[in-house]
Amino acid sequence: MTKKILIVGAGVAGLSAGIHACRNGYDVELYEMHNLPGGLCAAWARKDYTFDGCIHWLIGSRSGSQFNRLWREVGALKETKIIDHEIFMTIEDGSGKSLNIYSDLDHLQTHLLEMAPEDEIPVKQMIDAAKTMSKVNMPLEKPDEFFRIWDIPVMMIKMMPLFKVLGRFSRITVAEFLAELKNPFLKEALALVLPIDYTMTSLIGTLASLHSSDAGFPEGGSLPFARSIEQCFLELGGRIHYNSKVKQILVRDNGAYGLLLDNGSEVQGDYVISAADLHSTLYDLLGGKYLTPRIKDSFANLSLYSSAQVNLGLNTDLSSEAKKLVVRLDHPIDLGCGPNRYAYLTNYSFDPTLAPTGKSVLAAMVYSSYEYWGSPTSNRERYREKKEQLADKLIKAAVKRFPTIKDKIEVVDVVTPLTYNRYTAVWKGAYMAWIVPPSAGRFNIPRTLPDLKSFYLAGQWVSPPAGLPGSMLTGRHVIQVICRKDKKRFIKI
Ligand SMILES: Cc1cc2nc3c(=O)[nH]c(=O)nc-3n(C[C@H](O)[C@H](O)[C@H](O)COP(=O)(O)OP(=O)(O)OC[C@H]3O[C@@H](n4cnc5c(N)ncnc54)[C@H](O)[C@@H]3O)c2cc1C
Description:
- This protein is of the alpha+beta class and 493 residues long.
- The protein has helices at residues 12-23, 66-73, 105-115, 120-135, 151-169, 174-179, 184-190, 200-211, 222-235, 278-285, 293-301, 380-401, 417-424, 467-485; strands at residues 4-8, 27-31, 43-46, 49-52, 58-59, 82-83, 87-92, 98-102, 215-218, 239-241, 246-252, 255-261, 266-268, 271-274, 303-304, 306-314, 324-334, 339-347, 360-368, 409-415, 434-435, 455-457.
- It has three domains: 4-42 and 58-78 and 219-302 and 435-485, FAD/NAD(P)-binding domain (3-Layer(bba) Sandwich), CATH 3.50.50; 103-212, no CATH class; 306-427, no CATH class.
- A seven-stranded mixed beta sheet has the order 8-7-17-18-19-16-20. A five-stranded parallel beta sheet has the order 10-2-1-14-22, with helices on one face.
- The two termini are 22 Å apart.
């Protein structure tokens, strides 16, 4: 008899799980509280403009790469034009100094050494490591549960070139690497590429993916990207129930057997997968009964980050201007997580589908805590004021860098960590899950809970810092695990 899988959440993880489940002969129903697919992979229209709320770089964008094959399995990127940037970002200190993060590593190395010859040794180590990483295929397809002792020698051989890199850089954070540098501007500028608490291998991995043109932007942006995955799921016979918030995961005899929806109705299935936010899954949908010490400890002690963004719809053409800038602010902006001395400006005119001809979208982003914004329900007015204050400050910074936009602003749209939480329930707006310190080593949250049968976890928190590719992969892995449990051979495509 066909078994039924109920999935909570139509983000990339839930959709990916749904697709692989359908392909493997399960009957799948997916419940999503929003009226759209994609979860955090979101974009929205305001007047003439589309504001993209997610993708800056998508690992797996290059046809034929490892993640690209996995994206195609879930129906994404098949005919999508990919926009690659020659310069991933330019950091400008406001006094005329700037640093380009070139995608090409040779170009980047020359540029960095021209700027900071005194840092030749660490710069070359970083670039060499990124070049090595760009040539190595990580073993992605097998879930951790499937690794056996005899897999180790095979993996060792495959990963040999990486060990040298991982050995040193996986044990230090970006901040620790930067402390080795002598050139003050190089130190300051490289600290802006990724949050500095990430392991150095995250920065190296990003540079490696850019170098191999595997971290581009899919034309159309986040929503069409999510829609293509949704379409694949629907074509395989999956069913999505939008505007269907799950209130509780139903448990009987230590096994999950169904979902209670917000509207009071109940649905039953053989398995339940939650691809919704981990905190709300465990504390709300399961009532805090199945917490493990590891998960409790991670929520209590690991750091998170989020951001606030001001999107501008501009009645002017910025297509001849720089696309991705990090600009020094005249006055730092502190949104409860330390001063932002720089703001990230994305001039989306590299994607002509996001604004009408002759118009442009510009986004300005700074890091933000969740707590800074207070509660919008208890103090709506104060929340609105804070949003306006942030918009004023970031518009000033944008106008300073692009003076021609001054009287051309047609739409202003402000997004905060509370916005991410409201639309997807993501814990504290943390859209990359926890920042895992190097001391934690290989960090995955087990996808099953010790005392709860027939229940599985997927999504960004299971494999941080997952981003889109990692979240998608957790959806695939969970179905591989279920197939093995049901003694089925996993069918890929
Ligand atoms: C500003 C921003 C920039 C980003 N940039 C990048 C980038 O450049 N590259 C990259 O790879 N990643 C990026 N990310 C991260 C990436 O978007 C996420 O890591 C990824 O989308 C997480 O997917 P997920 O499926 O695990 O979770 P989610 O997308 O959070 O999906 C969970 C889904 O569950 C639904 N849900 C929650 N609770 C319930 C409930 N009770 N009932 C029913 N449904 C529920 C939510 O509505 C949501 O649709 C960015 C994110 C943001 C916000």
